Protein 1
Amino acid sequence: MAELSFPIINMEKLNGEERSSTMEIIHDACQNWGFFELINHGISHELMDKVETLTKQHYKKCMEERFNELVAKKTLEGVENEIIDMDWESTFFLHHLPQSNMSELPDLEDDYKTSMKEFVVELEKLAEQLLDLLCENLGLEKGYMKKAFCGSKGPTFGTKVGNYPPCPRPELVKGLRAHTDAGGIILLFQDDQVSGLQLLKDDQWIDVPPMKHSIVINLGDQLEVITNGKYKSIMHRVLTQTEGTRMSIASFYNPGSDAVIYPAPELLEKEEVDESQIYPKFVFADYMEHYMGVKFQAKEPRFEAMKAMESVPVSATVPIAFA
Ligand SMILES: [Fe+2]
């Protein structure tokens, strides 16, 4: 079988003669991969190195022992078949928008908080820049996606800081079970030494190559809905490894909880989409409430469930959500 080449976007080329071919690679990646990897994205390598060092230090100091005591020692005892109800990961969450929770996290040291804040401001800018590139490729007006994500309080932006520790029996447990992401656009700063992230393409699991100072991008279910399936969220998973701890800093630029998500009318008109092929319209918080229970299942039944809810009044009573 021919080797598939994972899409890598050199963002510097967006400023020069190769702009249109680079835009085409982005469009193809959004349609056929749901994933791409950015290089020369403008975020300082020095800042990324600092975030990496501090994240790894924080894991060693505050998380590793807890993981070994609570998970590593007990989980695999006497197990013969693959464990399908847990993930071999150690994580914590940072919320940035609409409100930061950084000051409420007692075990984060000040320089870690400062570097993280600086980093996520850059990521937020990058996310909005990417959404506009997607709009351009789709023929939607600049700012359409951001507006679609806004709701009454603006988009939700948060980071899952994860570490995937070594596992003595990788065949028995995944670092993270296969799923598509529920939200908008996801920006991942992953370890450049320890691999493990894979995406599903044409029924094959393909490695997302670790690359120093790159940012991996993937699209969530909401972009699939807004583009009415033109762009896709893609199943991905993390394998466990016997050696090394894999760092994964995933930032989720998502709709606000009360944002109403629906296919862009302009795209439906342009493509003359048949009524039965139109994706659902819903309040994002309702989608998240449903997603939490079925995250590790196929996305299609989720879209169908939302479609079925269209006829009943929606309520936005669920807490702020991101995943
Ligand atoms: Fe994910």
Protein 2
Amino acid sequence: MAFVVSRSALSVSAVATPSGKRAAASRVVPRAALNDSAPKLFRASGADAPAQAAAGAPAAVATPFDDYRFAPIREATVSRAMTSRYFKDLDTYAEADVVIAGAGSAGLACAYELSKLAPDAKIAIIEQNVSPGGGAWLGGQLFSAMVIRKPGQAILDELAVPYEDEGDYVVVKHAALMTSTLLSKVLQAPNVKLFNATAVEDLIVRDDAVSGRRIGGVVTNWTLVTLHHDTQSCMDPNVLEAKVVVSTCGHDGPMGAHSVKRLAKLGMVDEIPGMAALDMNAAEDRIVANTREVVPGMVLAGMELSEIDGSPRMGPTFGAMFVSGQKAAHVALGVLRRRQAQEAAAKAATNAAAEALAA
Ligand SMILES: Cc1cc2nc3c(=O)[nH]c(=O)nc-3n(C[C@H](O)[C@H](O)[C@H](O)COP(=O)(O)OP(=O)(O)OC[C@H]3O[C@@H](n4cnc5c(N)ncnc54)[C@H](O)[C@@H]3O)c2cc1C
């Protein structure tokens, strides 16, 4: 009788044999090769194994993975490993220091810079897509290369992303190489949590004596829920309070420029002129120069800025997105420290009043 290693019925596929016939690709392991102490293998039914051998399946190629065995686990353990951590994160980041809306090139660069500048800060990234990275997985028109004008290549040097130096600009052979490297650094930072497949649906707006009208956080929902509010009833959102929100939702589109459009509806900014026609030279400098706190508690960066400022689009050149994100991190840190000082002063005043009352 032969032993057949099978992960699941789904993993069995048909392969062409030298004779041109098709046969199941199950691996046939000689009895002598089996280690008695190893976990029991699936034993093929007596009817199946000879049939496969007879079908002329090719001889198995030896690989370093032939005796590979995973440690045992219960299904409930897998479930709890995920859910306990996710719900702990939701609890931790219900009061975030910084929320970054949108994990495109600007949002990721902001998270990366901020995680270095403020290791004490709790930074949450909310990304509506399952896959973070926004438009930075490709260059223009779905081409692979990413063009970055100097001196924007400094972040590539810092992350050790290789590029070709073309004088005034550099080229990374795959935009995905830069985006995946940046993303891996962000996700490794102990003070950053990415909530993907989650959309920012609205903003928390506060109005108090100390800070006036300001952004105090974001309203979120699973993106799949956000997309179905018109077909389902009453699917209430979740909220994350934040001392500062950085919005990097990209230019206008089905989900883009979300925060800018909401600020306009709330009357917190004037009319949105929208992104102007393409001018690479003007566009990148404008985006970096204009990266700022647009209303108290909200910093804007990346292409979302072009919507509010009417600045030109830039096409497939990415330096401004990274540098705008990095600049936003410094601006956000200033807002965070200001807010922390306000809260500390308010707490001290409350304590002093309580002490005076008690005396
Ligand atoms: C058709 C097309 C044309 C383009 N043309 C230009 C151009 O001319 N010039 C140019 O500079 N760029 C253009 N881009 C985009 C280009 O990819 C960007 O330059 C660059 O990616 C912008 O970086 P960003 O970080 O500002 O925004 P993006 O890379 O767009 O990232 C924004 C991120 O925010 C997420 N997001 C959006 N809304 C929400 C929300 N409500 N909640 C949570 N997450 C949200 C998105 O899923 C995305 O991951 C174009 C893109 C497309 C698809």
